[in-house]
Recover the amino acids of this structure.
């Protein structure tokens, strides 16, 4: 799952699963968001009943950029495991097969469930996102871990203020965009899975900086704060959480070094690692962002990012 840059060019929100956000019990605001979900048609991966399921086998729902990095890191730790990838189309099945992921389309529920499931698919390719999460939960054996990569967009802050794991969420009914994420989280938590609320995902050739650089000038306010996390760090945090085999918890993934739009692009220009030069932001109004902090997640999971900040990722000094 990645951000929909063009659709959100003026405000840049985080990816819509995307990419989630507590190392303690979910906050009261999360519990207020819970309510029954409608049923959905089956959506699963076919596993032969004659096939034995390994204790470290993994199903990745939505093996895109993030999911493939998860697969690579997971196989490094579990070289004998089977990794399944569930997709909406067959467009990338040959690619998945080449990298050792067993692909499948939407289809009947599995007869044999897998011990580890991570859901990385974005909500914009489905009419029933919570239903898709329910089906993913049905493919989980209840062992290992079930993890949903959600988004820090669910936090109710648009004034560049600070947010942590326990900060309140946007109330249900206030935003269709956050409603779908909170409903999906609800399905996961009630199934005993965990949610990882991710900040803005990036790598060198993907992220808001790439889109803005391609435009040169963007009609958006420069002072909106963006919290970020590198794709590799999002994957390593997700795996660290799954290895803990926790139940019904919500965590946050970010680098704890939020930057404004202007600061991001100043660093891009200064790095010398990109062709072209960004000219500037011209907007003066619109909502602001949020400064995410995941200190509680780090303390409980024992995780630190490979890339402590976007600045250091670019090889620059803070």
């Amino acid at each position: 799952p990645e951000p929909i840059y063009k659709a959100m060019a003026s405000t840049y929100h985080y990816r819509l699963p995307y990419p989630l956000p507590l190392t303690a019990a979910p906050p009261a605001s999360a519990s207020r968001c819970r309510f029954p979900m409608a049923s959905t048609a089956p959506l699963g991966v076919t596993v032969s009943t004659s096939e034995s399921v390994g204790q470290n086998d993994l199903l990745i729902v939505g093996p895109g950029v993030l999911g493939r990095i998860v697969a690579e890191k997971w196989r490094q730790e579990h070289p004998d495991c089977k990794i399944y990838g569930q997709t909406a189309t067959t467009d990338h099945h040959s690619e998945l097969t080449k990298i050792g992921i067993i692909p499948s389309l939407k289809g009947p529920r599995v007869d044999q469930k897998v011990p580890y499931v991570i859901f990385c698919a974005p909500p914009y390719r489905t009419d029933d996102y919570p239903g898709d999460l329910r089906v993913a939960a049905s493919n989980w054996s209840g062992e290992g871990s079930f993890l949903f990569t959600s988004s820090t967009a669910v936090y109710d802050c648009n004034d560049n203020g600070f947010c942590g794991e326990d900060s309140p969420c946007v109330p249900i009914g206030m935003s269709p965009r956050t409603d779908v994420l909170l409903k999906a989280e609800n399905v996961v938590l009630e199934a005993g899975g965990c949610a990882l609320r991710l900040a803005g995902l990036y790598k060198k050739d993907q992220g808001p900086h790439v889109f803005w650089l391609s435009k040169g000038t963007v009609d958006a306010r420069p002072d909106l704060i963006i919290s970020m996390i590198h794709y590799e760090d999002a994957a390593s945090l997700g795996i660290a959480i799954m290895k803990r085999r926790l139940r019904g918890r919500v965590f946050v993934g970010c680098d704890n070094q939020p930057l404004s739009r202007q600061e991001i692009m100043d660093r891009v220009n200064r790095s010398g690692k990109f062709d072209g030069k960004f000219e500037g932001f011209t907007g003066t109004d619109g909502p602001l962002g949020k400064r995410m902090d995941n200190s509680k997640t780090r303390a409980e999971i024992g995780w630190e990012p490979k890339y402590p900040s976007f600045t250091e990722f670019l090889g620059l000094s803070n």
Observations:
- The radius of gyration is 19 Å.
- The first strand starts at residue 58 and ends at 61.
- The chain has ten helices and 15 strands.
- Residues 176-190 form the longest helix (15 residues).
